[in-house]
Amino acid sequence: MGFPRHRPRRQRTTPAMRRLVAQTSLEPRHLVLPMFVADGIDEPRDIASMPGVVQHTRDSLRRAAADAVTAGVGGLMLFGVPKDDDKDATGSAGVDPDGILNVALRDLAADLGDDTVLMADTCLDEFTDHGHCGVLDGAGRVDNDQTNRRYVELAVAQANSGAHVVGPSGMMDGQVAAIRDGLDAAGYRDTAILAYAAKFASGFYGPFRDAVASSLQGDRRTYQQDPGNAREALHEVELDIEEGADLVMVKPAMSYLDVVRAAADISPVPVAAYQVSGEYSMITAAADHGWIDLDTVVLESLTGIRRAGADIVLTYWAADVARRLS
């Protein structure tokens, strides 16, 4: 019995042939590097649960950011880690112009200008003494509307500090509309909003909470999405787009590739996906044990997220991968 006339293996014979017919590309411009900057430290501080990732000082952040931009990454997402004494019930350190996130944004804006896309996490969890993403009411529940008012203050402070993009990640109802109105009223009409539109209550966030020294006790299931609810996630995506989101995000990425695909199918704006801390750490741990090849699996995982439909991927490997791809 002869072989069929069309043999797919002919398309795999050489690296050049495979590159020519590749259906999904992974380029440095697709990647955004999340970075942590901490107040009150003199040297970069290792994050034990995220080997290879650190809490930066302002100076080390500037150097690492410049290196990442030189490597060609599409953007930087910045998270601030205040001193414990600066945390309070309303997260005022996030709004303070002299708070660590805002001064670091000004540092990078001065250094990099428009050579990259500077993004800021627009949330309260790093700055509150209770660790929740919002302001609590008298019963200890997150108050949606009070929180949105605080998000507007955060977004305006971040835009004033040089952020090109603000990233509301708290999953409050109406957060995008409130921030858009607030930015426009403050004269920041060109500041874009990356909405964490489908952020699930995931077990993969544990190392991130170490990275930002979270004060959280309990969980965030009353405002983050249930992992089983894909249709609800798409509804959230649609709502955020209607409210003025310039980009929408699915988080985490790897366990929610079906949601990434579905969001890409309906979204008129770019779709981002966040390869979160737990995904980073489990791949790193397996590679450290010699069970997988790190470089191969990292590229495979990121290509899979792109193949699912993500236009942009946030990953802690962004700079390393960009250097490899350049």
UniProtKB/TrEMBL annotation:
Keyword tRNA-binding included in the entry's annotation: no
First-tier enzyme category under EC: lyase
InterPro entries in alphabetical order: ALAD, ALAD_AS, Aldolase_TIM
A GO term, aspect molecular function: zinc ion binding
Reaction catalysed by this enzyme: 2 5-aminolevulinate = porphobilinogen + 2 H2O + H(+)
Residues that coordinate or bind Mg(2+): E236
SUPFAM superfamilies: Aldolase
Alphabetical keyword list: Heme biosynthesis, Lyase, Magnesium, Metal-binding, Porphyrin biosynthesis
EC numbers: 4.2.1.24
SMART domains: ALAD (SM01004)
Protein name in UniProt: Delta-aminolevulinic acid dehydratase
Provenance organism: Mycolicibacterium iranicum
Lineage: Bacteria, Bacillati, Actinomycetota, Actinomycetes, Mycobacteriales
